[in-house]
Amino acid sequence: MVVTSRDEAPATLKPEYDRASELKAFDDTKLGVKxxxxxxxxxxxxxxxxxxxxxxxxxxxxxxxSIPVIDVQGIEKxxxxxxxxxxxxxxxxxxxxxxxxxxHGIPVSVLEEMKExxxxxxxxxxxxxxxxxxxxxxxxxxxxxxxxxxxxxATNWRDTFYCLMAPNPPKAEDLPAACGDILEQYSKxxxxxxxxxxxxxxxxxGLNPNHLNDIDCSEGLAVLCHYYPACPQPELTIGASKHxxxxxxxxxxxxxxGGLQVLHQDKWVDVPPVPGALVVNIGDLLQASLLIxxxxxxxxxxxxxxxxxxxxVGPRVSVASFFSTGRRPTSKIYGPIKELLxxxxxxxxxxxxxxxxxxxxxxxxxxxxxxxxxxxx
Length: 377
Known about the structure:
Its cofactor is Fe cation. The chain has one domain (17-375): Jelly Rolls (Sandwich), CATH 2.60.120.330. It has ten helices and 14 strands. The chain has helices spanning 9-12, 19-29, 32-38, 79-95, 108-123, 126-130, 180-204, 211-214, 293-297, 354-364; strands at residues 69-71, 98-102, 142-144, 159-166, 220-228, 238-243, 249-254, 260-264, 267-270, 278-282, 306-309, 316-324, 333-334, 352-353. An eight-stranded mixed beta sheet has the order 1-2-10-7-12-5-4-3. Strands 6-11-8-9 form a four-stranded antiparallel beta sheet, with no helix packed on it.
């Protein structure tokens, strides 16, 4: 079967297509999307066909807008410069929910080695890699294709491995040999950067610099390492469906391939790779405890939907660091920050236990919709 366009795809699907069985057969190989590419596929399996809405490129790559780039060099020494940087972060967080960070203090050599480490993991012997393939989220390292493989309307053209690097990182021997050392080094540096960013975000909200760190926003760190193989039919699938991230704050390291887009004023805007830069975005919630950033800021900051396009060129590698409260059991209830509320700015979200948000988001998966409306008053 040869599919030449999105419009033709539904008509060519055979009635006997059993999605559930094909998902399981694919998952059971434990080889991921890369396994398909290694096998030489020229036509992607039907489980990867994305809904037409996900593939809407009518406003893709809009050049009218550009993602803010913020330089934080010297921020610890110059009070005046710090104030200007806080203003820039406030504007970017309220308007875009995304910005690129340069001169952030993490050496370029570390960034490059982190990307190489991810490539080594995915390109090592398949039998070694299979040992990490699991859907048991309690394992020290979890490698699979799509966390919502069995619930999402379409499978994304992407493999992922992740591990929780704080507050209780895995033992060194439990990390992949291909990238364990650099993963530990990078995690320590990005954790320091995340703490600084949360200070700046607190100041941008007019709060004490320690406010967000004091409510545990930087206690936990989950590092997700994505691998997007070259795709033979990128017009039929997508690397990552439209979504808002399930964390408070995300720091993303991306390679030179590109493909990341953010939805801004109903237009898909490219987030172009900038050498040495890190992409920062405001998330819907906190990983593990899953605190809704828009909930606690009462919509002051924006959590923007974004996606990653599939590409004939690849592989694309990215490393997403999710800052959170840590994966400890907690009955803590979160709601809009009271200091941000007033008669003219009443709460827009109900208070909720973090476990309730975690359960709802996990069951919903990346279906192209936000979890936030479910918690609105």
